[in-house]
Amino acid sequence: MVIVVGSQKGGVGKTTIATNLAAWLVSKGAETLLVDADDQGSASDFSAYREQTRGATGFTLVQITGSLVRKQIESLKSKYDHIVVDTGGRDTTSQRAALFVCDVFLSPFNPRSYDLWTVTKVSELVDEVQSMRPAPMLAYSFINRADVKSQDNRQVSEVLQSYESLTFLPFPLVNRKAFANSAAIGLAVFEMEEPDKKAVAEMEVLFNAIVYAGHTTTQNT
């Protein structure tokens, strides 16, 4: 499975999602490739810290940008159980190339008004790519860095559910220090010496929903 994590805005936590997902897939015994398709190279930085902390990443990392992303991923698909692609927080050639070859597109949104303004752009991009693909991809939205107050998250959920091109996953990741603390040393949240049990539980639910698809989603009609 090829899973692309992307957005039309920076700072939504997509690299944290992508790197935790790659580490999680490895923990499940999957041969995993992490593709850093973001010019900022944050996933590569994470992997460097991870190698220092653990001695090995556990996954294979490659850096690919531009139109080559599509060709390279297509050539590598047969060699891995899963490929996770971290793309930039804007409409780039790299992101579009990845979307043409992925099975799943995952777009996180923070519960902030200026983040939600980008939902329309993401939806339009998904519609455009879907119209040119030989087979449709699964496109998901979810709330990342969710507020503790459920009322704020509920309002954001209602907005995300209104977009037909994105299936809303009702499994938010709450804004917890555990994600930043673990990322700083190249670890996933579940790999910390004293992991945040709530963060780990939230991540497990979300990732199981994405990868195994045996979940209840809010499918727009």
Overview of this protein structure:
The chain has a single domain, classed as 3-Layer(aba) Sandwich (Rossmann fold). It has nine helices and eight strands. The chain has helices at 14-27, 42-54, 68-76, 93-99, 113-116, 119-132, 150-161, 177-183, 197-212, and strands at residues 2-5, 32-37, 60-63, 82-87, 104-109, 138-146, 167-168, 173-174. α3 runs parallel beside α4. Strands 1, 2, 3, 4, 5, 6, 7 and 8 form an eight-stranded parallel beta sheet that branches. Mean pLDDT is 91; it is low at 214-221. The chain is α/β, with parallel strands linked by helices.
How would you summarize the topology of this molecule?
Elements: E1 2-5, H1 14-27, E2 32-37, H2 42-54, E3 60-63, H3 68-76, E4 82-87, H4 93-99, E5 104-109, H5 113-116, H6 119-132, E6 138-146, H7 150-161, E7 167-168, E8 173-174, H8 177-183, H9 197-212
Parallel strand pairs: 1-4, 1-5, 2-3, 2-4, 5-6, 6-7, 6-8
Helix pairs in contact: 1-2, 3-4
The rounded distance between the terminal residues' Cα atoms is: 25 Å
CATH architecture: 3-Layer(aba) Sandwich
Strand runs, count: 8
**Proportion of beta-strand residues:** 15-25%
Radius of gyration: 16 Å
Total helices: the number is 9
Question: What is the percent of helical residues?
Answer: 40-55%
Helical/strand content category: alpha/beta
Rough outline:
globular
CATH superfamily: P-loop containing nucleotide triphosphate hydrolases
